[in-house]
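Forwarding these from the shared drive since the link keeps breaking.
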Amino acid sequence: MIEDYETIDEFLTRHAGDVEEAVRKAAAQEIMPRWRRLADDEVDQKSGPHDLVTDADRQAELHLTEALRLLMPGSEVVGEEAVHDNPASYEAIRGDAPVWIVDPVDGTRQFVRGETGFCTLVALARHGTVLASWTYAPAQDRFATARRGRGAFLDGVRLHAGPPEPGRDLRVATSHPDYTTDDQKRALLGLRVPGVAPRPCGSAGLEYLDIALGRVDATAFSWEAAWDHAAGILLVEEAGGIHLARDGEPFRITGGNDLPFTTARDAATARQVAALLAGEPA
């Protein structure tokens, strides 16, 4: 049983590569053999036509759940599909045990359409703090990792997001309208000002990776599901970015955030986007 952060740090020193291998193996065995080969009966809707689940999601999550628990006895797993079946299992994020946060296929719509813009997300957290993350885009052969205080990397190359280029419109990926309340829709309208270029997001995990790479400047997301955000916000933090809710407080994976929230490649951009979401002048 993991007892404290120092022990988790030791675990990560020994086993971060084993976690990466588990993610790669889940993708190789459960996701990629189904990519562009899905039968109709392997795709279901959850809450609506934009909220899909496939056999790849289910089987990859089961694969990762078993592998990660074996790597760290006593840890919990919060996976998107398991929480859909048992919402109470989400509470493990707020518990005392280390918790693996898993999105087996982030960007399921893109996966179903046969596109390459999907990824597998795994984060390790405790007491609401994300300590390490793994982001794997198997169809693009890209693997990003982050470890708190140790940096963010894409295929072994360290990431530094840096500030946006002066004089260019801010590129901001935003929530799909289907996942916003009326209040959140009004908040997102605050981004429709000169100097900001909002657009609908794709896979959240890959949007975060593009922020860490400096290809996207910020996000404005209206939902809190930790499996979509935990891996990415650490990746961006370790590349030099920050995240802020609409009230100016950092985003909490345990919930209770003033939404929408933003994650941005630098502090000035995050403050600007958060202010616009709050209805304040840029």
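-- next protein --
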Amino acid sequence: MLREAAVVALLVLVAGCGSDSESAPPKTPAAEPGKAPVVTDALPGRVVRVGDAPEGIVIGTSGIAAVGVRNPDGVALVDAATGAVRQTVRTQGAPRHLALAGPDGPLLVPLEGSNELLDVDLATGKVIATVGGVGHQPHDVAQTSDGTRVVTNELGGGMVFVRNNAVASSVPPGPPQPGGVAAVGPYAAVADVQGNGVFVYDGAAGKEVAHAPVGKKLTHIVTMVDRTVAVADTDGGAVFVESVTPDVRQVARIDAPGNPYGLAYNARRGLLLVTLTATNMLRVIDVSNPSVPKILGDLPTVRQPNSVAVEPNTGNVLVTGSDPGGDSSLQIIDVNELPSR
């Protein structure tokens, strides 16, 4: 019985960034979002139901949002203004991160359950291409300026490089458990959820070119201006602004208590949006000068706000409520409801 109990205990442990894989766990626990309390505050904006446990969201210039959902697993294509679901693209397993190869797609969908990367037309939901063998539980993807799709191989460690709808190469750790990835021109900056900082890869060359310790344990990462990225230090309660040239240099540290997780950037307004998962809050930060960020205020969100995105035309903010089987919803916040400078 003791031996059987030990085996069960190992299987129920999960890998970082909210993973639900039954693979062997890493040596140390990875960074995870906070367990959010029940929502009691009145919420700004409007809240609509979108699938189960929505997580991972991007919005194209056409105003179509793509949201990863569960039960059934897939990607819901949603009108970003109203929250109305246009259609749901069924997938093998639910994606945790989504990315856009261009301002309006195609949509890039890494599938942890099938170890595949999908290209999906954002307007029609048609799967344009499927690339298999992109690592062991591919977690996130970003496209560098040369067209390389850089995929984080979360449970295999290191990175996988995809070109012309085929795996071109891969590299070992690097990050022993890579989480979020963001393109910075020809480079891909990767957050390691095991606490080993930020790793930088040259997309065209398919090799690591820089690494630096950053924060305590990181999860998400988003590109900003002037070759800077914002990185959520989920275990450290902060967001770091880092310059990637490709060398990694700290520009600023922003206080973000409550397990910061989802990140989005509004380039027109110079705003960084950070979800605080342990408190159901959205922190709004003025990063028009990345070296001198200014916290403008916090807004209450739907429960378990694991992901956030900005509608590129209006500046409206969409937040996913990723509570499994509970308050699974999408919050649409008008840009005029955000704290002002």
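The first strand starts at residue 46 and ends at 49. Residues 2-12 form the longest helix (11 residues).

- D.
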